[in-house]
Amino acid sequence: MGVAALNIRFLRKAGVSAADAVSSVGVSQVVAFVAHAVILLTFAALAGTSGRGSLLPPTWVWIALAAAAACLLISAVVPAGREFLRSWLVPVLRRVIPRLLDIAQRPLKLAEGIGGALLVTSAYIGCFDACVRALGGSVALAAVAVVYLTSSAIASAVPTPRGLGTVEAALSAGLAAAGMAGPKPVSAALLFRLVTFWLPVPVGWVAMHYLQRKDAI
Question: In this structure, are residues 24 and 9 in contact, taking their beta carbons and an 8 Å threshold?
Fold first, then answer.
C-alpha cells in the first residue's frame, strides 16, 4: 500500500488527475501480479522436473495463508466488512478495468508494461541466485526462482516493511528445502536482503528528500 500511495502522489504532483493516477497505479500492480504469477508457475514446473528435494513451503506458511483467507471470508460475511470491501473494490475496478482494456488495444504499451515487470522480477531472481552461488550453493536456478517468488508473495501479505523478518525466514526455509545444507541458506538470505533491502535505504532516503524539495512527491 505504501508503494501504491507514493506512486499515486508522484503522479498527482506531476499534474495527472486523481482518477488517472489511481487507475495507472492499479494497472501497473495488476500487470506486475500477472507477470509474477506466470513466472512462478513456469519456474515451479521447471523445478518440479528436476527431482531434487521438495520445494513445498513450511507449515507456518500454510497457516498464515489460511488465516488470511479466513479473515477475507469473515470480512465478506459480516455486513460492515462487505460494505468496506464494496466501497474499496468497486471504485478501483471501475478505474482499472477501462484502463486495462485501453492498454490491451495498444500492443506496444502492453509490451512495455509486461516487459518492465518481467525485467524487475528477473533482476531480483538473478541477484538472489548470485548470492546463493557466492556462498557456494549449487541450487538450480529454477528452484532459486521458485523460492524467491514464493517468499515475495508471502511478504506482500505481511504488515511489515517489505516483509521484514518473514522474507528472511521464507528464503532460508526455501533454500534448505531445495537442498542447500548447513548455515548457508540463512547466510544467502541475509546477503540477498542486505543487497536488495538495506543497502538501497540511504539512496532512497536521499532521493526522497530531493523529490520533496522539488515538490515532486
Answer: no
